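Forwarding these from the shared drive since the link keeps breaking.
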Amino acid sequence: MGRSVQAFVPMERVPTVTHNDLQAYIGRDGRAHVRKSARLHSAEGAYLARLAKIAEGMDGPLSGPLSASIRWCFPTLGRHAQGEPRDRPPDLDNMEKTFLDCCQRAGIIADDGGIVEKETVKMWRDPSGVWFRFEEIGGR
């Protein structure tokens, strides 16, 4: 087993915007282009501000092959049981893409392409936020 990192990132409002939140626009060149929405930029900023603090305490980013576990904890708001699965949008795989890209940009992992196994869960849980664990697993 290699190095690992795990942390809980408390967030009052877990971002539900995903990497698919894009806007079409016409550039100065008169051609159609696509860019990230303001909501997506805001979500990435919220993740990056918190993840950068975690990366500061590390001895460089973890590199693959990696095992990943991620748990999105959405506030119960008194309407859901602790740990109850959240079976509504956004799609789990779309949430992963945004979060893993931010983990890479923050310097927690060297490349999200190095993740060879993962477990992800969306649930209702207080406190709200994102719990994650990455582990260098070497050759299995």
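-- next protein --
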Amino acid sequence: MSSKIFSSAVVGLDAEVVEVEAEMGGGEMGSFAIVGLPDIAVSESRERVRSAVKNSGLEFPRVKTTVNLAPADLRKQGPSYDLPIAISVLIASGRLVPKISFANCLFIGELALSGEVRGVNGVLSTALCAQKFGFANVFVPAVNAAEARLVPGINVLPVHHLKQVLAHLLDKEKIANFPKENISFENIESLFDLMHVRGQEQAKRALEIAAAGAHNVLMSGPPGSGKTLLARSVPSILPKLVLSEALEITKIYSVSGRLPPDSGLIRVRPFRAPHHTASGAALVGGGTWPRPGEISLAHRGVLFLDEFAEFPRPVLDNLRQPLEDGVVSISRAAGQLIFPAKFMLIAAMNPCQCGYYGDSEKHCICAPGQIIAYRKRISGPILDRIDLHVEVPRLDFEKLDSAPPGESSAVVKQRVEDARQRQIERFANTKCVANGEMSSLAVRQYCELSEDCRSLMRVAVVQYNLSARAYFRILKLGRTIADLAKSEKINIEHLAEALQYRPKVE
């Protein structure tokens, strides 16, 4: 006798349907084989399933048991197949004769030896897969139910123990559907606020522009000038998430195993701050079967790289493609995966190795050659992809001691959201959500210049030795400044301000 039920395999950020087939007999008594390209975690499910079935009050079959996970050319990994394997084996052995139809059901979950069902990764991707292929009921670990219920059109059945599923299929005790929730995105208070930063008005203005248009920023200044505090205040001025963005972020965190237990939708924009000793694989993603890295975990949020020049140059150069394309493509022998990576890069660095080059109070002890070598740690192509280069100088005593508090993040955030709303309306029929994501074709369409503006840019291209990429990035920046000023057109003062944020030519 054979049986077939359905589960799923997560590939990248998406899931595919997997058929879990079981058959009894035809070999050595008591042997248990799992085929279909399983990894070690899947192969080890034999022992977990045996014990879970025994501790659920049933006897495991004493004949040869073969489980096939189809399609056979799709690699299966992780412990999420334990629950469907156990149910398929019990049906094939005749120990479980379902009284209700399970043809439209999809099962995932790891089994403990006691029969309890533990949480797994990628449940949101599985729920989306079930919706796509018309599965009405999805049996998921109870700790993952809040995540699965985000997908409309399916019934989410939270499972605590294997016994529960057996009782449900025997129509003895039904598992109640997990209730849906009304999704809302309220303003969430941050520990960091721009009004806590004394002075540094130019840097605050640059961060407001960056948040309004999703632009990249590099802050340079001596130690203790407030660069880190400024960067950590950026999430407090970013616009609220919309549902589509929140689902993208939640899916990434679910697949990578970073979604907190019993939590559903991620409602705040990510803020990732990897240490400068992070490897290239940690930053962009990797592994035998690649997982999302820091740049994907920062999708629709902020990637903060403190001590920017201390990162190894090859590691930073991995950012080139993601900063340009908004995705990262990882190729391995097992295949190619593409992860989203539309993030704001906020970087902070010292002007030299000792940190005091150009400081008004403390003398720099670095030799000229050391200063040049320090700055060369960051390649030109990376610097060319950064829209705003900002000096963050030392503050004098008067500003530290008696300067009045600046604008709160709430006030700045309102201006940012107003500017973003204009961009949403502008890009309603495109895939862009912010000015920083515009292609060169979109720049020509939405960033028309007057003759005065063209004359200014003509001079700037020569004076600043601008590349084609830098030219288009200045136009995007000018468009964002115009949006903050509630201007339909890019005026010469908007471009002039955008040009102030280019690195100084030395």
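Residues 409-426 form the longest helix (18 residues). The domain at 194-428 is CATH 3.40.50.300 (Rossmann fold).

- D.
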